[in-house]
Design brief:
Layout: H1 2-14, E1 25-32, E2 45-53, E3 56-63, H2 78-90, E4 97-101, H3 112-125, E5 128-138, E6 143-145, E7 147-150, E8 155-157, E9 170-173, E10 179-187, E11 192-199, H4 215-228, E12 231-236, E13 242-244, H5 256-271, E14 282-292, H6 297-313, H7 321-333, H8 342-350, H9 355-396, E15 404-414, E16 417-421, E17 425-426, H10 428-438, E18 443-446, E19 455-456, H11 469-472, H12 480-496
Length: 497
């Protein structure tokens, strides 16, 4: 017997690690984090997925919040404080924890820190052996790229904060990413334990007047959970420039529920086609990357020059708003006889007079002049908003001596599901670039993870001066994109080894 035990020990020592890999365990839980001090439309949750394989324990937490630090209710000390407590109580290494914000604009409870720790605690304590599968869904109906490319080559964005450009000036729109990246975890008896799904879109369909809301992704997670009796963790993707469809529609009530149901049903359809397998690998990476901060001084100077030029271009007109509105309506109703009935024009023609024609010509000139002022004022509104953002970031960043910004990048592999992260609002071209370069069908990108550093547009998008908010609400120099995409590719390759 003694010799047999020795033989087993020696055999195990020489077997490849994969041959003796421990069974993957997972646990999932969710907890209510809704601030109830005001009107509540639907509930907000923190959801946790705990994973363990051998001596590796990892945690993925999805939070119905606008960001992990930076903006919103979750403060900058949230991440280090929660990580420290999870390490002390549960022995989970801080670098093995991923916290993703859905980017809904709901209000979290003042006890968000304690409740996040509690939901992780519940997930860890409920771990059971699991089978894993990965798949891809598709949803094309609920989102649109908010960047509008104009005839002059500039770009503006679609926001509630300011008006749209004239239709005649818009020539194209930016891309979207309709892919839903899905991780399915089942108990060994085949019953679903958790679903992780990754998609790129701002969940900002419900207006503040509706009440506190987890928005689109809150409803999509709800329908997945109700149908599968599991925990559904939404992980926000590279959706920095993606809005809900018809975001500026003023003819219908805005409701996140229909869009959420569409996303949820599309995810469910794909989930049901995924086959799960036991003994899947678990791997976690955590790396730091220094990115160059932008010196916005030249952009600010350029925008200030444009600000003066636009203001100087405003000219006095014959009309004011009270006279403009009825004239605008009148000249749209009848092209050939706007001022009076058509027979009066015929009568004047018969009398060889042109009084009404000359009146119409003058009124149309006044209308055009007033419309030019309106469009100019709309440009000034966009420019002023973005200029304030640039000046603030310049003051707190580059001008304060901070020439770089260090970001935390995480990587998670569960089976063939591969996720790489970024702590900001990646625009969709960055996400598409990384997916294409990965050459792996199940490589996905999560923004808004483990911190928040505002928008991260492409180097090309950052050439756009003052037109789109994400190009101004940015801390990064254009050189950031190449550095990050290279590092993201490295992380994915390491995870797949």
């Amino acid at each position: 017997m003694k010799h047999l035990r020795l033989f087993v020990v020696l055999l195990l020592a020489y077997l490849p690690a994969a041959s003796i890999a421990a069974v993957l365990h997972a646990g999932a839980a969710k907890i209510d984090i809704t601030d109830e001090t005001g009107k509540v439309n639907d509930r907000l949750y923190a959801r946790a997925l705990a994973l363990r394989n051998g001596n590796i324990t990892a945690v993925l937490v999805s939070i119905d919040a606008v960001a992990i630090g930076g903006i919103g209710r979750i403060k900058n000390d949230f991440l280090p404080r929660v990580r420290a407590k999870l390490k002390n109580e549960l022995g989970i290494a801080p670098e093995n924890t991923l916290f993703n914000a859905s980017h809904c604009h709901g209000l979290v409870h003042s006890e968000i820190e304690a409740r996040t720790i509690e939901v992780v605690r519940r997930a860890v304590r409920s771990m059971v052996p699991v089978k894993v599968g990965v798949g891809v869904g598709r949803e094309t109906r609920i989102m649109e790229n908010r960047r509008l490319i104009l005839k002059d080559g500039s770009t503006v964005d679609v926001r509630r904060a300011y008006s749209l450009p004239s239709d005649k000036d818009v020539v194209s729109v930016g891309p979207v990413d309709p892919e839903i990246g899905i991780l399915r975890l089942d108990r060994l008896d085949g019953q679903p334990l958790a679903v992780v799904y990754n998609f790129a879109c701002h969940p900002i369909q419900n207006t503040p007047e509706v009440g506190n809301s987890a928005d689109i992704t809150g409803f999509s997670s709800k329908i997945i959970e109700e149908n599968l009796n599991c925990v559904a963790l939404f992980v926000q993707g590279a959706g920095g420039d993606i809005n809900p469809i018809s975001y500026k529609d003023v003819n219908h009530l805005h409701s996140a529920e229909p869009l959420g149901l569409m996303l949820g049903l599309s995810t469910l359809r794909a989930v049901r086609g995924i086959r799960t397998r036991p003994n899947q690998p678990l791997k976690v990476l955590n790396e730091k990357l220094k990115l160059p901060r932008a010196d916005h001084s030249k952009r600010i100077a350029s925008m200030e020059v444009e600000q003066i030029r636009l203001a100087d271009s405003l000219k006095g007109t014959f009309l004011n708003l009270e006279t403009f509105l009825p004239l605008a309506v009148k000249y749209q109703l009848s092209i050939n006889s706007p001022s009076l009935n058509s027979y009066r024009y015929l009568h004047e023609l018969q009398m060889k007079r042109s009084d009404l024609v000359r009146l119409d010509e003058a009124n149309r000139r006044h209308l055009k002049a007033y419309m030019r002022n309106i469009h100019t004022m709309e440009k000034i509104t966009r420019l002023n908003t973005n200029l304030r953002l640039l000046k603030n970031h310049q003051k707190t960043g580059f001008d304060s001596g901070n020439k770089t910004i260090e970001v935390e990048l995480a990587g998670l592999r569960v089976g063939d599901f591969v996720l790489t992260t970024f702590p900001g609002e990646l625009t969709v071209p960055v996400g598409l670039n990384i997916k294409k370069a990965a050459k792996h069908p199940h490589a996905f990108i999560a923004g808004y993870t483990n911190g928040y550093i505002y928008y991260a547009p492409t180097a090309e998008q950052l050439k756009n001066v003052g037109g789109a908010q994400e190009d101004s609400d940015c801390l990064l120099d254009p050189a950031w994109q190449n550095k990050y995409e290279i590092k993201a590719g490295e992380i994915i390759r390491k995870l797949m080894r």
